[in-house]
Amino acid sequence: MREGACAKSGGLETKTRLSTMVPLCQKAARNVPVQAVRVQQHEGARLLILSAAAAAAAAAHEPIYWVDLGLKNGINLGFFTLRYYSLAYLAGIMLGYWHLSRMIKAPGAPMAQRHADDLFFYCTLGIILGGRLGYATFYTGGDTGIPSLWLHPAELLALWHGGMSFHGGLVGVILAIAWVSKQGGLPFVRVADYIAVCVPFGMMFGRLANFVNGELWGRVAGASVPWAMVFPDAGPLPRHPSQLYEAGLEGALLIVVMLLLFWKTRARYRPGLMVGVFTAGIAMARFCVEFFREPDAQLQDFAARTGLSMGQWLTIPLIALGVFLIVRALRNPEQAGGRPAPA
Question: What whole-number distance in Å separates Cα of residue 182 and Cα of residue 192?
């Protein structure tokens, strides 16, 4: 009896367990697909987010192509193309002349309007002739691989072929100031102070024209430079738009500094101060930008041998000269109208 009862009770117990487990198994079976679907959905969303992030990163590192900007090197008049580079020189000279005419109306001016007119003419000649002759001297002949323009004087007049030197143009402007000062009996340093305030206008327009022409590009840039550009004739690698760096430092920044110095301080009464700030400022800006600017093709070996580009070597004396003029101006007493102020 006991064994039969036990067998019966065991059967009932087994049946009870089975009846309890079946619903649990059915519930588990129903939950498995739902959980799998949820996992798949989660995984799909994660992959979608990663794909979007990867696409955004790829787009962020996509270089800018200069040709896509739609820039042109001039205005086609049909019979003649008016180059933006020429317009940049013209705009810089005209704006400088206009501002100089305003400056000499302020107290303490060392010159009259007739002197400003003469400076406009001779400084224009100095920029063009000095810039061209400087290019022939520093960037052609010797080890450059380019025939010296000094051996082909007719080529010096071919301005449309390009080739201007900032340092040569600077020498030309200095000679023009010296000539006008001597002819008019003007204090050379004070006249140079006034001209120095106006030069950055031309520097900014000139560098912007270099960018518009797609020339004088920078060195190859790394992936961390989102504004790197691929320039025509510069290979497939993105490069620094060093023309814009120069326009910003040698142009826009110096414009702000020089205008504030003239109109908001008494710097005009300290001969040599403004020309010293300009000389040191533009030389240091050029020295820094040269680290990002591609050296001229004919001077790459020179830069590799010496560790510095030709432009950097030429700016070192200018930095020293600018600092000397600043220190000298600050140590000397203020002057008014070119004469020592009364004690």
Answer: 13
